[in-house]
Amino acid sequence: MTVHHPALQTYADAWSHSIEAISELVQPLVEGEWNRRTPCPGWSVRDVVSHVIGMECEMLGDPRPIHTLPSDLFHITSDLARYVEVQVDVRRHHTAPEMTSELEYTIIRRNRQLRNETRSPDTLIRSPLGGQQQSLELATRLRAFDVWVHEQDLRTTFHQPGDLDSPGAYVARDLLLSSLPKVVAKDAGAPPNSAVVFDVHGPVEFLRTVRVDEQGTGTIDGTPSLGPLVTIALDWETFYRLACGRVRYGSVADLVKIEGDEELAREILRNFAVTP
């Protein structure tokens, strides 16, 4: 897909790749398979696809459904989750053909919108996750991230691994890395004048150092540290699943290698989830 603004091209391509993969994954599903649980807390396959459809409809500017949520949705723990759940719950009784046809129609509409987009990337638009405003570029980036993560949810559910190094994976990498300074410096409380190294291997490889300055502020760069307080080594799939709240550290501890301050490392990994 070619879009007007080069700043949007990377994210549009990543979004298109992942959402088409989602469509291919769910097209052959029989009715009962739509109810299977996914790694996304509280959501079935139908719920994940409903969320994807709903967020793309919000990007299209469609009116939000008028819908009252039931009181027994125990995975709803915040106003943001409640806002997002409306697009999910309103589709919970839709049939498999209704789901796939709405997904396909939504993809067609969004592809057309992206191809014909003439607004500047820094134009402020309403976020699909609520009333706050964000730039068109950020919104497009976040949609690319979101659909890649949910593609992986579905792949995990149906044991169909793939696309761990797709364009969406690199969008996800950069977004998740941008959250690491806060995780290390604020959430885990790494001491001033310390460094924490993340050594990630697999389909997406990188080495990053989070440095905490005298004021306790964290920054991240790609320069190795000569004397890190701790080094955390893990594979890319485990990294993104921890960062996206799909698993907890205790369940994947055997996949993580820690060198240095083990107590700090465990605190970092306990606070690793950065998605809502």
UniProtKB/TrEMBL annotation:
<protein>
    <submittedName>
        <fullName>Uncharacterized protein (TIGR03083 family)</fullName>
    </submittedName>
</protein>
<dbReference type="InterPro" id="IPR017517">
    <property type="entry name" value="Maleyloyr_isom"/>
</dbReference>
<dbReference type="GO" id="GO:0046872">
    <property type="term" value="F:metal ion binding"/>
</dbReference>
<dbReference type="InterPro" id="IPR024344">
    <property type="entry name" value="MDMPI_metal-binding"/>
</dbReference>
<dbReference type="Pfam" id="PF07398">
    <property type="entry name" value="MDMPI_C"/>
</dbReference>
<dbReference type="Pfam" id="PF11716">
    <property type="entry name" value="MDMPI_N"/>
</dbReference>
<feature type="domain" description="Mycothiol-dependent maleylpyruvate isomerase metal-binding">
    <location>
        <begin position="17"/>
        <end position="155"/>
    </location>
</feature>
<dbReference type="InterPro" id="IPR034660">
    <property type="entry name" value="DinB/YfiT-like"/>
</dbReference>
<dbReference type="InterPro" id="IPR010872">
    <property type="entry name" value="MDMPI_C-term_domain"/>
</dbReference>
<feature type="domain" description="MDMPI C-terminal">
    <location>
        <begin position="171"/>
        <end position="265"/>
    </location>
</feature>
